[in-house]
Amino acid sequence: MLRRGLSVVLGVMLVGFVAAPGAARAAGPTITAIQPSSGPLGTRVIIRGTALAGATAVTFNGTRATISSVAASAIRTRVPVGASTGKIAVTTPTRTVRSQATFTVTEGIVLSASVGPPSTIVRVSGSGFTPGGGVSLLIDGAMQGTITASAQGTFIRAAVTVPADALPGTHEVQARDAALSSTVSQPFTVQTDWPSFRNGPTNLGVNATEHIISTANVGNLALAWSSTTNGQPMTGTPVLARGILYVSRQDGWLLAFDATGCSSPPCAPLWKGKTGPELETGAAVANGVVFVGGYGDRLYAFDAAGCGTATCSPLWTSITLPGEINGAPNVVNGVVYFGGADRVWAFSANGCGSATCSPLWHGKAHYRISGMDNTPAVSGGTLYIGSNEGNLYAYDAHGCGSTTCDELWKSPQYTGIYTSPAVDDGFVFVSQYSHSLMAFPAGGCAATTCLPAWTAPVGSGTVSSAAVADGTLYVGSDDHRLYAFAEAGCGAATCPRLWRTDATGDQIWSSPTVANGVVYAGSFDGMIYAWDAAGCGSATCSPLWSSPATGGPIENSAIIADGMVFAGSDDGSVYAYTLP
Predict the structure, then answer these.
(1) Portions of the chain given CATH number 2.60.40.1930
(2) What is the tens place of the pLDDT at every residue in 240-255?
(3) What is the DSSP-derived secondary structure letter of residue 267?
(4) 180-191 core/surface letters (b: 16 or more CB in 10 A; e: else)
(5) pLDDT tier at 461 (50, 70, 90 boundaries)?
(6) For the chain, which terminus, N or C, has the lower number of CB atoms within 10 Å?
(7) Is residue 189 a contact partner of residue 114, using CB atoms and an 8 Å limit?
(8) pLDDT-based confidence at residue 434 (cuts at 50, 70, 90)
């Protein structure tokens, strides 16, 4: 027989209810059990009772919690940030009831983020500490600061910063109660992802958080693993997110690999997803979804975690577009942007609730807004993209209130722009095939056609997108070399290079990438090269490192993440390099 105030067996708190002041004791909602009866922040809690349907609020000692699900006999929730030991109350349209016994909030912390790069600011919230007592915050035992718990033994959103030199992997964020000499912790995983072709909305081609490989040790890079192959070229630049490497293969397959490799290389993919008959572009990852376009004339969206089987179907696709998609997508503020066939497209990254989705908007048709790795750049609410016809176009990234949108401005027509623009410090940088790098004011020119502020010669023709890092632009050329230019220009209409590299064994179509003072590019000779991004003090610089030759050209970019270098080859394999 239950008596009021008696609680529980096996972690289940059996209780009656007490109506909130002023509430009539009439038939209505009741709380009959709470499972469990105690726990730290974030604990899943089931509130059982009667007449709970339609509940609008749940509080833990006055702190509001988020309701996960509600039914007549049960409510599911979690112990919220800021909660302290006390009664649980449930509000329904008819009345508010609260538990007779107390729910005990035990010592624990929650983090605002559990994954991120070095230098991430993490907000720590805790409950169950000594009321008014001191709490030390640490990462891997190293002191980050101290705070004072509230009179209820709580603290909310105290900031700690992940060290700039934190290595990839799991680290412990800790809170130590000074009075009790007790410590609780939560894991934080350091990862330096590269989730899109040029690693960000503005297409700079830089990983600013990567710090393991440097000019001092890059020469020691060695092959860590390579993938299995069916002979079909790896056509898109790899992207990496949450420890998974995604690579496009020419026969229409998107492949997902464990970025750390496997016990017995060559490594097979974790899973793969079929797009159209061909796939010539890289992917982009955002919020747990991988986006990729293909020669099936559609955008495909896959669950980034896979589907539990070796072959996965897309979550959704776009409608059939009027031609193939050759440029990798860029996901910015919940919108997927890409160039396809003859225009730029914008789709909701959340899909549309059905298997096939229409665009939010698209640009006016132009001649082939596509090309090798031509990915839109988005900065300050403006989208920039080049076209095979030779124009750079600028659009309002929010659209125009209509399905079809005109550009805000465009460049004059040049020989052909097969590259992705990069935006930095008020300028848009784009290379065009007739061996020229161009810099346009990002805000346009108060006219519909805008001239570049300056240009620079780049050897012979180029289909290499520029990288921008620490005031320097880097671009590859068909003359087998990499070129470096001052981002600020030279005060004249035509600017000379700062330096260039020795010739590699073949053309550099690969778009350069930069991390921790090293610039990387692949060559048609099948090798990846690394140079000091600051140059070498002379007009021509030799590489600090080059990989052994793969079995085919490396057309696309090498990426640098989690202390490793990844690249796909036309020989059909992906290659991963690391320090010994």
Answers:
(1) 108-190
(2) 999 999 999 999 999 9
(3) B
(4) eeeebbbebebb
(5) confident
(6) N
(7) yes
(8) confident
At the topology level, CATH places domain 13-104 in Immunoglobulin-like (2.60.40)
Q: Are strands 559-561 and 518-522 parallel, antiparallel or unpaired?
A: unpaired
DSSP state of 79: P
Q: Which two tokens stand for residue 559?
A: 């990426």
For 218-578, CATH gives: 2.130.10.10
State both tokens at 455: 């240009």
Is 342 within 8 Å of 367 (Cβ atoms)?
A: yes
- Looking at the predicted structure, is the pLDDT value of residue 1 above 50? no
Res 144 pLDDT > 90: yes
Report how far residue 49's alpha carbon sits from residue 96's, in angstroms, rounded to the nearest whole number.
13
Of the CATH numbers 3.40.190.10, 2.60.40.1930, 3.40.50.2300, 3.40.50.300, which one belongs to the domain with range 108-190?
2.60.40.1930
CA dist 201 and 220 (Å) reads: 32
Q: Is the pLDDT of residue 20 over 90?
A: no
Residue showing tokens 């160039």:
339
Tell me if residue 418 falls in helix, strand or coil.
Answer: coil
E strands, 38-191, are 38-39, 44-50, 57-60, 63-65, 67-70, 74-78, 88-91, 96-99, 104-105, 108-111, 115-116, 121-127, 134-139, 142-148, 155-161, 169-177, 182-190
